[in-house]
Design goal:
38% of the residues lie in helices and 36% in strands. It is of the alpha+beta class.
Amino acid sequence: MAPQHTGSGLEIYTSRHANDQEAVNTQPIATYSERLLEVRRDFTLYNDQVVVQARWFPNRRFEHVVKLAALKGEFQEITIRYRMYRYAGWIMATGALAYAACYYNAQDMVLQAVGYVALGVTICGAVFMSLTYPNRRIRFARFRTQADRIGLDIGSAGNDIATFVKFVQQVRRQIYR
């Protein structure tokens, strides 16, 4: 491709060969990362598809290609509660309840080992809860397929809202093309 310079500082690329069009299609239009405690998903938007790469803790990987032609341009906004945050709350509550029972049974005596284990579980639950607190509610943009099935979910975890909205709008623009 040879750049053509315009007076405004903008460069326009024109194709010299048929293979140059294939090279343009392989360049990503936009990228977006979604990070949660147990998984990271990277979205790469191309002219005709979105490539989703997921990496779960500790070593599982997954890649999926979603064709934009199969998606509807309208999306549904949904908000879900992050299950890890809920689990952390249950761990903390269970540990606190067990600690209270051990403390009550010990009365004026020294707390037994089970009481200290329960206290440790309570502390672990509190730490886990603080790690998952920023993502306690996750906003998703859900694109449906032409067959009205779920085709692509993009979550706003790990980035600011403006980056999320911008990427969703770019996906919509590419679907309507």
